[in-house]
Amino acid sequence: MLEIESLAAGYGRFTVLRGVSTRVAPGDFRVVIGPNGAGKTTLLRAIFGLLRPSAGRVRLDGEDVTGLAPRALLDRGLAYVPQQPSIFPQLSVRDNLEMGLYQVARPDARAVATMLERFELLGRRADTPARALSGGERRLLELARALMIKPRLLLLDEPSLGLSPVMMGKVLGEVAAINAGGVTVILVEQRVKAAVAIAKSVSVLRLGAIVQEGSAADAADARWLAEAIYGAAEAAA
What we know:
The chain is an alpha/beta fold. It has helices at about 40-45, 70-75, 95-100, 110-120, 120-125, 135-145, 165-180, 190-195, 215-220, 220-230, 230-235; strands at about 1-10, 15-25, 30-35, 55-60, 65, 80, 155, 185-190, 200-205, 210-215.
């Protein structure tokens, strides 16, 4: 269980998150959506310890983890794939995966082979420098490396950014499979329709606050979604 209570965070004097509260149950697939500048990326960064909250609490399975360093959160089974590229372009696919093992206290000797088997596209290019991969393949590599720590909770920031519809479907399909395997997922995504189609629950952020939450079925209603994201007046216009 991830519990976020009255979380506030920002950059210098600029406050982005304004009292965000929510709960994400084990096994959930939570999609966080909202307009640009709503605070979605800031929320993930605050959860993962990359940004220290100015107020509020983050609890993981009842433990207060507010402001803990990312390394400490990795040890607790929380992984994060940022929006910006995080692979090592000069290293091969295999070497990038092995870098993920440096974050594991007791690495599994078969972990790299397991990931190369699971992600067939990566397996075929195991010895290829990461810089030669397509955008979609790089995203798959980032997902595979995040799985090296065997996370309980996976945070993803717009993994479909810049991808073709085909590769977007492949990447989001892998995310859905990861969740089906028992990993709780929090996904920030701008491609709302595609994300909601594989979600279990939805949080809508606007101006740094959660303004509405519901099930994937709720978010499949175009009017519910438009009112949540833009407000009733704008949605009716």
